[in-house]
Specification:
Shape: elongated
Number of helices: 5
Keywords: Membrane, Transmembrane, Transmembrane helix
Protein name: Tetratricopeptide repeat protein
Structural class: mainly alpha
Organism: Brachybacterium huguangmaarense
Length: 139
């Protein structure tokens, strides 16, 4: 719940920022002249990029949360096993991925979680994006 609240706060702050950028662009356009219109165009482009990036991140977060709710890690059948260290979990997830489950979104999601536990956010996001793409293709 805390993550959703923070995401909502960030979207509201981005909306306020976009509103301010819009007013700045209007002010530059009202000033007229070549420089005013050029600055207004630059600010409008910045505004469009802000909205696009925010929208893309919100969609990514919603899709990742949907996969998180659907994800159920495979159990070995021996009951509850002790959690592995992040490096060991990553190695096990990577081995599972390399040995035949490359088209399974759950395997990519698990690798993404393992990367995240190792604090490698760039690879974690790439793995989660791959999982989202595979899950969409499977629908």
């Amino acid at each position: 719940m805390r993550q959703r609240l923070m995401a909502a706060v960030m979207v509201v702050l981005t909306a306020i920022y976009a509103w301010g950028l819009g007013w700045i662009a209007v002010g530059f356009a009202r000033a007229g002249g070549l420089v005013g219109w050029g600055l207004a165009l630059g600010v409008a482009i910045l505004l469009a990029l802000t909205v696009w990036v925010t929208w893309r991140e919100v969609l990514f977060g919603m899709a990742a949360a949907r996969l998180g709710r659907a994800y159920a890690p495979a159990r070995d059948g021996a009951g509850e096993e002790e959690p592995l260290a992040p490096r060991q979990e990553f190695e096990r997830a990577r081995e599972d991925l390399e040995h035949g489950s490359a088209d399974d979104w759950r395997a990519w999601y698990r690798v993404g979680l393992a990367y995240d536990a190792l604090r490698d956010r760039r690879h974690a996001r790439a793995s989660i994006r791959r999982a989202i793409d595979l899950e969409r293709a499977a629908r």
